[in-house]
Each structure stands twice: as structure tokens, then as C-alpha cells.
Amino acid sequence: MRHRKHNHLLGVKTAHRISLVANLSCSLIENGRIKTTLAKARALRPSIEKAITLAKKAHATDDVAKKIHYRRQAIARLRSKDAVKKLFDELVEQFVGRNGGYTRIYKLAIPRLGDAADMAIIEFVEEIQKKKAKKKRTSKKSKPKDDATEKVKDDSPAEVAPSTPVVEENDVQVSAEEASEAVSKEVSKEEDPAPAPDVKKDEKDDSDEKNSENK
Predict the structure, then answer these.
(1) How far apart are CA 103 and CA 71, in angstroms?
(2) Which residue ranges of the chain lie beneath pLDDT 70?
(3) Domain 14-124, CATH 3.30.559.10 — does that match?
(4) What integer best gives the mean pLDDT of the chain?
């Protein structure tokens, strides 16, 4: 009887289907999560879990010949040496404590545009630990800020004309006219020379003294 012998045909021939599943398996190993149609995700699940089982068998045994044998079987299934190397050397440690059920499928609500095919996401149950690239620390030198930029002027001072000085006496502000008069008086005092002595009076005094002597 041929019960359940034609599952996941995907509408293509056998050779095409085997290559398709192998490529999807390699993409899943490299990225840890892929988005594809629901039918392809369901066809991929048994294939990738069998490859993970081979990796677990190779990890559990100490016989070198068996390890090589399991690795060759995985290469024949996945058709990529790089993907098999990553699976056997890095990812296998995440699945040592699990007995099956290495992947999970999420069905997406929005179908694919064009043919309205059901879309899904398939990923490993255990999260892949990716190495984070170290960020280079750049020392930023603090630039000195000008005092003028730090001060914020809320109210600008009133502009004063240079021709009208303001004089303050005893905290009392004098008007511009009074200030100008006071300045002009001071300037005139400074410019006026000292009064010359009266020459005529001196001459009269000398003549009077001479007359008194002659007498």
C-alpha cells in the first residue's frame, strides 16, 4: 500500500524539489530564520531536522570515522560544505538538550501579492547567538564654549545716542538738556584763561612811591 507516499510534492519534479529543499535548508542554517510559503516551510521542516539529528550523532560519538560518515551524509543532503560545517561545529550545541522539535513555523496573516499564497516564517527553536561587532570608541574632545554664546539675552538694553550723554547724581537720572548744559559749563571753565594782573594799578603805585621819596 502506498499510504502517505506523496506528501509535499510542491508541484515540481523530484530533482527540482530536492534542490529546493536543500537550498532552503542552507538559508535557514545561515540566517536562523527565513520567510517562505507555508507549503515550502512544511516541506523543509522534516529535512532540516534530519540534518540536525546527524549533527547530534556526530557530536555524541568519539569515533572519528563515524563523525566523518555523518558529515558526509549531511553534505549529500544539504549540498553545501559551508552550511554543514556551521551546523556541525557551531549550531549543534544548541540542540543537544532537545529530543526533536528543532524548528517552529509561524503562519502569516497577509498572503503573498500576485498569487495570494499563504506565507510563513520558519526558524530554529533555540536562538542563534550572533557575535556583536565591537564598536570603536572615539574620544570626543570637548570644545570650549564662548561666554557670549552661553549668555542668553532676554531683554535687549535700550540704545542711547552718543550725542546725548546721561549723567547720574545720587542715583537720580538727569535729563539730556541739563546734562549737556553742565558739560558745556565745565568745558568753558577749562578753556577760559586766568585773569591777567592789572598793570595800570601797579604803575600808579610806583609813581606815588617815587613822588613821596622826592619830597
Answers:
(1) 21
(2) 127-180, 182-183, 185-215
(3) no
(4) 79
